[in-house]
Amino acid sequence: MDNTCDICHHTTGADRYLCEACEYRARSWLTGLPRQAELLRDCLEPTVGPAQRGGSGRAHSPLPVDLRVLDLLGPGRPVPLDDPHGDQTAGVPINALLTGWAHYIATDVPIVYTDLGGVLRTGAYLHAAAVPRSGTGITAWSTWLARHLPYAVTRPYAAEFYEQLQHLQDRIQRITDARPGRRHKQAPCPGCQAFALIEQDGELHIACDACGHRLTAAEYTEHRNQVMPALTALALRMITPRRTAAA
């Protein structure tokens, strides 16, 4: 294991496969899944045309339900089936994906025990199963995974887990169009001086869209306090009309 994140390739701890920023993003995806599922359920309502004038009926029958929503909310296997003929276009359903990863991580979580000789040893529950505290729905599984994410990012499969969550988010957002909010920051980037610093919901850092430089909220506040007074004064001088010599 080296000291770079398997996803963004930024520096991370020697015992981690994902950096803090990517872990934060994955946790945001997990904690946001219950709300995303609610939006998907709203998409199950058939779309209808406007009522005909002077009548109580509709201009046409309801449109079919979006099958992509059923693919996401329905039952399924935690891994894709073999598809030699290309008949399957969707991915793994939300609950199946979360359940599969929860059980996989549960079998990998170490246990500490004392053997018959009194020696402290470490093992694993090779046949363990994840047991959420509040049912087996999307909320329960996403909560369980978020709770065990600090351990998962230290394992070699962390990048695969992250990428599957990312793919799941992409599938959901193509239907709901519910994307994270983005806010432009006032101060220029300390790395490239471009006015391209963006604060995005679900992200640990404020990042530059131009060069990729990252700042924590505290670092940005300090940077803004250093550069904005001079920039503001310069802007005021530029927009304030100058008196001519004749005046």
What does this structure look like?
This protein has two domains: 1-44 and 65-78 and 91-179, no CATH class; 180-247, no CATH class. It is 41% helix and 9% strand. The chain is built from six helices and six strands. The protein has helices at 20-42, 67-73, 94-108, 138-152, 158-176, 217-239; strands at residues 110-114, 120-124, 182-184, 197-200, 206-208, 214-215. Helix 1 (20-42) runs antiparallel to helix 4 and helix 3 packs parallel to helix 4 (138-152). The protein is globular, with a radius of gyration of 26 Å.
Task: For the structure shown, list the relevant keywords.
247 residues; 2 domains; 6 helices
Number of helices, counting only DSSP H or I runs of 4 residues or more: 6
Q: Tell me, what's the shape?
A: globular
Helix content: 40-55%
Low-confidence stretches: 48-52
